[in-house]
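This week, look over our next protein:
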Amino acid sequence: MGSVKKPKLCDKVSHGADRISNLPEPLMLEILARLPTKYAVRTTTLSSKWRKIWPSLPELDLSTLDFKNLEAFVSFVERFFNSNMESIGKLKLVIYDPYDKIKATATRWIDVVTSRRNIQHIEFVYNTNYLRNDKIPVQSIYTCETLVHLKLCGVSLFNAEVVSLPCLRVIHLESAEYRNESTLEKLISVSPVLEDLTVISTFNENRFHENVLQVRSQTVKRIHMGHIRVVIDAPLLQHLIIDTGSEKHFEVINLGLSTKLHIYDDVGNEVYNYVFIHDILTDIAKVRDLVVSNGCFWKNLLRYSNLGPVLQFRNLCHLNARFPISDLEMLPTILESCPKLESFTLELVKNRYTRGEKKKDPKVMFSTVPQCLVTSLKFVELRRGITRYEGEIELIRYLLKNSKILEKLRLDVYYTQKTKYDFLKEVVAIPRCSNACEVLVL
């Protein structure tokens, strides 16, 4: 028998390319649409037919970092717009332009896109140095009838006489300038289906530390405010995220049990003043769901509580708290302050240092059993992305031995493969007060 000739690699590639080319055009377009733009364009090497299709993609998602220089980025975006402007539904551009070389061009892109009937999603980030005063002027978004999602960073919003955004559900403004507060207030209040609002200022924008933004919306459900003095009137509010800084600069007219309150301090203040703690406790007392992302908050709260009886958050059912390991001794008091707590997530972070000396890991000693462990606590999650600390097993042991109705203990902790087995054996051997308790180790 004669030898069979093996097909060459180029024959296989050619055959594969033919199969790709034979796919229906709508299917090829759907495949490309699921990829970031830069990857979708790269796939055009598979087939000459694909090279004709990618300009018809319904979205453009690019960063200047995807290109060797700004000129190449501008050329690509211009070519995409020229071939596909009528059908584009999503625009996402991240532009690093430290010398404002393409500022005018970028401004024109926003104006052109918002004038088209099909645009629904705009994300536009201009530079990441938020201390700069030069920002992209934007004045064409106020009457974009199809817009659903709007995210603008590093822009300057012009005054608006007419605002018509009947479909807008998401507004995200970061390091943006406004000629006056009424422009932003109008943008919020006249958006009839708005659900998600984010407004984050920067420390150098002192005007917002003096003036007060009035947020009035009958539809918004989630609000994230950063470094802005604000009064919120939103009866359907479900989730409020506040970057506190060094003082309480927000007021919620109708904060209720259904609102999840997330207190976040990206400055990392060590000491809050008495007025701040007093005011923030008033808000915490009203909610059922609380997230605190800065461990310094708890130390200040306990310092405040030393002036009187133990604080009581009688409505609080769900608590997500971040603690430095060195401050873990505060945990018993926090649990005692939440008599109706049902769900508790504890995230442990690195110790802080005082006067150059490392504080020893505390051995948490519970002299009493908080009421919530006996009558209400059903779910506990311990998160730790750092090395194991002294007393970890004792903390787990305490929770399992004293939580009478606990249904699940989730341990999301970091261990090497070598040490994880020993840890599992320790956990399994701990007796449980609740026969229904399930322990998950991730």
